[in-house]
Amino acid sequence: MRRLLLITFLLVLATGAADPKRSAELERAYQDMVSAERALEDAKQRRDSLGPQPDKESNYFDRKRSLEREVALRQWVYDQARERWTVLSAEPSSPS
After folding, report:
1. How many CB atoms lie within 10 A of CB 41?
2. Which of 37, 69, 72, 83 is most buried (CB neighbours < 10 A)?
3. What is the pTM of this model?
């Protein structure tokens, strides 16, 4: 998926090269999307690596709930960043 996003990004960047402001905006949106994806993957990994601790069962469930909320938040942030990048990349570049 990353390869497809990178190829699409490079094509959009190449077609928008005449407008440096647009190129910078697309680059920022792409970087935001990549950062959000990394944060989401990290949150999922932390959630999935949480092992039960028999002596502190109530603490385990609180931690698990907290990690689930973090994953949901990171998913939302990633979805918003991806949507922003998709919208920006789909807009035709304005002629100079």
Report:
1. 13
2. 37
3. 0.72
Distance, in Å, from the CA atom of 19 to the CA atom of 75, rounded to the nearest integer, reads 31
Element (H, E) at 7: helix 2-15
Place 54 in a pLDDT band, splitting at 50, 70 and 90: low
Residue 54 per-residue DSSP state: G
In 3-state terms the chain splits into helix, strand, coil percentages (rounded to 5) of 85, 0, 15
User: In the prediction, which pLDDT does 45 show?
Assistant: 96
Share of the chain above pLDDT 90, in %: 48
Contact at 8 Å (CB) between 12 and 29? no
